[in-house]
Fold these 2 entries.
Entry 1:
Amino acid sequence: MKQKVITKKIVAMIFAFAIAIGVFFVTSSDIAKAATDKVSLYSSGITYTRHGISSYEVFIKTTDSAVSQKVSVHYLYMPTLGWCDAQAEYVTTLDDGSKIWKANFTSYNGQYAIKYEADGETIWDNNNGNDYYGTEKVIGTAPIAAERLSSLRGTLVGYQINAVLQNYAYDKNVFVRYTTDGWNTYTDQALAYSETNTDGTETWTTKLSLESLQDYKDFEYAI
């Protein structure tokens, strides 16, 4: 009789433990999902490359309402020197209340993750455990991003413009609006579809004829 009672108690304990473990995993999963929604890569690009090392510009989106927020990029400068943090600066608030931040860093391979600290909590966006690489990812949650390809120092004829955009609809018109006089005047030029990327986004492209441009500092554009 005692043996049966002990056996029932053990079974009950195991059952209760299993339920507790199940609740823990469900709760942890919910927390992870909620955490991912609070911070995400918005867009990124290479601003300068020389001798195998590049400078990167990363835009980050946060949707948290915390008063005190700290956003940074945790990046690998090079394997022998380890990881560093580049703190992001606030840029703007979008119409939906989310905030955009920008961080710049220099690295040999562009490997990084996004670190978000608010109200005593640290949240990571590390691309589902794969980390981000500045040489690969141009757009995250942004609707559209311009891909920086080259400097204007040099030939201005046939200046390449590439845009990466979310595929919201089959039919779309994509334009580059550019100025050569500080936006006193501007010109619109259509981009043409180039390819669909592995993540489902699209790349559109065009070339601008800027042979009459006297000072490249006066050249600006938006997609």
Entry 2:
Amino acid sequence: MQGAGKGLKCWRMAKNKKFSGGGASQRQLRVGELIRRTLSEVLMRGDVHDPDLNRMSITVSEVRVTPDLSIATAFVLPLGGKGKDEAIEALAKNKGELRRLLSKEMTTKHTPDLRFLLDETFDRMDETNRLLNQDTVRRDVDADAGDGDA
């Protein structure tokens, strides 16, 4: 009887509305960071048997993991931002070997399937800075700041 109650309690905790928000769970964040760090180390050491991939210097900025931890999406960018398409193609071509190398280094029970996307964060930051530095935007910001002092 007591064992059944414990299972019911765990089920209730999983269904708790407080934790069913839109953001990633702590577990997803931890596994994503573990994959990001390990993938970065594997790429930095050049453990993959692909000379094209080993020639590239690739930054892994973030890894997002699905709630069931079956798929990991790595956001990557080659150093200097040149050869983006070639980097994604090389990573996709070697994703089986990368997954095998990750599974050897990580302590998780299962290694998720890997997907690779370009990290466009830096491009968006540059565009935002460009927009904020326009004369019309500066005038509006300065006018708003002047109104707040009065």
